[in-house]
Write a structure and sequence with these properties.
The protein has 115 residues and is mainly beta. It has a single domain, classed as Immunoglobulin-like. The protein is 13% helix and 47% strand. The protein contains one helix and nine strands; from the N terminus they run αβββββββββ. The longest helix is centred in the N-terminal third of the chain and has 15 residues. The protein is globular. It starts with a helix and ends with a strand. Keywords: Plasmid.
Amino acid sequence: MKKFVGIALAATIGIGGLGTFATTKTHAAVNNPESTKSVYQVSDVQGEFMHIKVGKPWSMTPSGNQYKYVLFSENEIYVNPKTGVVTAYEEGAAEGRVLDKNGNVIAIWYITAFK
């Protein structure tokens, strides 16, 4: 886990110099005031870094019936593949992707969960 978080941090630093980068409070379909979001834009796919609180659900965007949601994690962090709602049951890191009907990646999320 520490290695993955270190890679995510290195990616943040490297990607920050390549594109637009900003940090904001998030207002998603599942409101979670403890979460913060960082956004970067590289080529056609927008990538975002999200810090969520363990046990507090949060939604990946964009949202809608035309999208499918997948998440990769070695920790207990899960996503509902139809709604995009992410819930972490322990601290850790994950990569989430939003796919369109054809399987094209629309957005990438790098998620870290904290207590």
